Amino acid sequence: REGKDSIIENVDDSSESEIVEEIQQTLTVLEMLYRCTTTQLSNSFEKIGKELLPLLLSMLEDCIHKHERRDGPVFITSDQYSKGLDPNNVIMTKGTKIMAHLARTTQCLVPLANHRGFLSILRRISVTATLPDKSRFSALWTLGNLGCDADNMIMMANHPGLLDSLLEVADRDRSPEARCHAVKAMMNLAWRPENKTPMSEIPRLLSSMLRMLLYSGIVQARRHAASCLRFLASAPPKTKLRIVLHDNGSILSSVVNAASSDKDRYVRDCATGILSNLSCKETSKVMGEHPGLFDILAKVAVGDGGKASKIAAAALCSLSEHIQSANTKVLSNPLTPRKIDKGVVLVRSGGSSQIQSDGI
After folding, report:
1. Checking DSSP bridges between strand 335-340 and strand 343-348, what pairing results, if any?
2. What contacts 24+ positions apart, CB below 8 Å, involve 44-52?
C-alpha cells in the first residue's frame, strides 16, 4: 500500500500483513532484551541507537496516523483475532516500552531528548486518551525520566505544547496512574532554577498541583505535587509573592493545613519546606497575617528535632526579621517569633511561658 505516512509502501495486502507481524515480533523480542542492566542498555544504544530511534519514531507515527484516521485495512492474524489483539496497539505498546527502557540509563537521557521528533511523539501519545493505556504510561514515564537530567529541563519546559499536554493529563485523564506520571514530569522540570518563574506564571499549573496535593488518592502523586510546589517556592521574591497570592491565598492555606495535619510525614515535611521557601520580605506581611501560620511553624519547630523542625525554625526567624523590620503588627496570631543567639524562642504575648528549640 502506497502512502507517505506509512512505513510500509508498495506492497500488497497479504505482504503487509506478514511484515506487520514480523515488526510486532521483532519489537516484542527487543523489548524483552532491553529489560537488561543499564550498562548493557547504554552499550546497545551506543551501537544501534542512531539507527533504532528513527525506525521507532516512524513506526509510532504510522500507528498514530492509523489510529486517528481509522481507515485502511487492519491486518490481524487468526491467532491475534482470537486474543483480541490489534497489531497497531501491539507496536505502540512495545515501541513506547523500548523508549522507556532506554530512558532508564543516564547516558541516554540527553541524546533521546534532543533527537528530532522524540519529545513530540511522546507528547502526542501521552495526551491521546484513546491509545492503549500501557503505551501512554510508558510515554509519560519516559518524559518524567528525561526531565531528571538538568541538561534537558529548560528545553523540555519550553518545548511547544509539552507543559500544556502534561497539565491536560494531570487535570483530566481518567487514569490516576497517568496523572501521577504527569505530575512527576512537571515536578522534575520545576527543579531547574530557570524554570521556576515561567512555570509559576501558569495559573493552571499552580491550581493543578494544589488539586493533586489535596485530592489525589495516590500517595506518590501527592508527594510529587508537594515537591513541585516546594521547588517553585524557592524562586525570586516576586514569584514567591505570586504563589502566596494565587487564587486568594488558596495555596498558602492548603500548605499550612498540610504542614499541620497531613497523614503522610513526607507531605508534612514538604509543606513545611514550602512555607520556609516562600518566606521573604515581599511575602512577610501576607504570611504573617495568615491565621494559624505561626502556630503551625512553632509546633513543627519544637517537634522531634529533625530536619523539618530546623526548617520551620528558620522560617520563623526569617518571617520575624522581615516583619519586625517593616514594623508590621501580627494581630491575628498570639505568637511572635524572634531570633535569640543560636536558637528560636517563641514568646507568648501577655504570658511568661517560653518554648525553646535546638539551635540551627
Report:
1. antiparallel
2. 45/102, 45/105, 45/107, 45/108, 45/111, 46/107, 49/102, 49/108, 49/111
Say how far apart CA 327 and CA 214 lie, in whole Å. 35
Separation of alpha carbons 193 and 190, rounded Å = 7
Q: How many CA atoms within 13 Å lie on the side-chain side of 37?
A: 3
What mean pLDDT do residues 313-322 have?
87
Distance between CA 121 and CA 195 in Å, rounded?
A: 23
Q: Per residue in 132-163, pLDDT tens?
A: 999 999 999 999 999 999 999 999 999 999 99
Cell numbers given for 93: 505498546
Which residues partner with 355 through β-bridges? Answer: 346
| Residue located via cell numbers 499550612 | 256
Task: Please tell me the chain's helix, strand, coil percentages from 3-state DSSP, rounded to the nearest 5.
Answer: 70, 5, 25
The cell for 194 is 530557570
The upper half-sphere exposure of residue 56, i.e. CA atoms within 13 Å in the direction of its Cβ, equals: 28
The set of cell numbers assigned to 88 is 497497531
d(CA 47, CA 197): 40
| Gyration radius (Cα) of the chain, Å | 26
The alpha-helical segments, DSSP class H, found in 147-262 are: 150-157, 162-172, 176-190, 193-200, 203-215, 219-233, 237-245, 250-261
β-strand partners of 281: none
Q: Can you give the pTM of this predicted structure?
A: 0.83
